[in-house]
Write a sequence for this structure.
């Protein structure tokens, strides 16, 4: 570890540069105070996995798994990937579940795909009775309304 004197030395700070091969690319060195080295870990998004059901106006169902539901729904809506969903105009997100572990998501996708159509429809209607597109407001600008407090 190399210690590089800096203008902060009088305040008890030292600028520290470390050459640790395993950490050099993944962590950024920070200022050390009183010879205690502090690492700033890189910000990582928590990985999420989604099992989703999409539909069209005639209620044809399409069940899949993804790690980015917003991206995947956008791809369906823009028909970027040819296949069943594009052919049958599957553009309405009607149900989804979120998982931290991909194995749980895969297991759930298999479970839902094994259900009868009637059971999938019951599940959708239990949380989304009107079959609304759950993604319709995702990429819309947020609008806020100020409501003054009354005494």
């Amino acid at each position: 570890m190399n210690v590089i004197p800096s203008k902060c030395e009088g305040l008890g700070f030292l600028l520290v540069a470390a050459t640790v091969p395993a950490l050099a690319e993944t962590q950024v060195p920070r200022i050390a105070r009183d010879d205690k080295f502090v690492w700033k870990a890189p910000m990582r998004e928590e990985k999420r996995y989604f099992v989703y059901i999409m539909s069209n106006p005639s209620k044809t169902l399409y069940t899949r798994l993804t790690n980015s539901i917003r991206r995947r729904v956008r791809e369906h809506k823009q028909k970027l990937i040819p296949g069943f969903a594009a052919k049958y105009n599957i553009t309405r997100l009607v149900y989804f579940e979120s998982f931290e572990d991909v194995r749980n998501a895969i297991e759930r996708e298999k479970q839902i795909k094994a259900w009868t159509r009637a059971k999938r429809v019951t599940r959708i209607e239990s949380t989304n009775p009107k079959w609304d597109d759950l993604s319709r407001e995702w990429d819309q600008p947020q609008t806020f309304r100020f409501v003054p407090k009354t005494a």
Summary: Residues 1-39 have pLDDT under 50 and may be disordered.
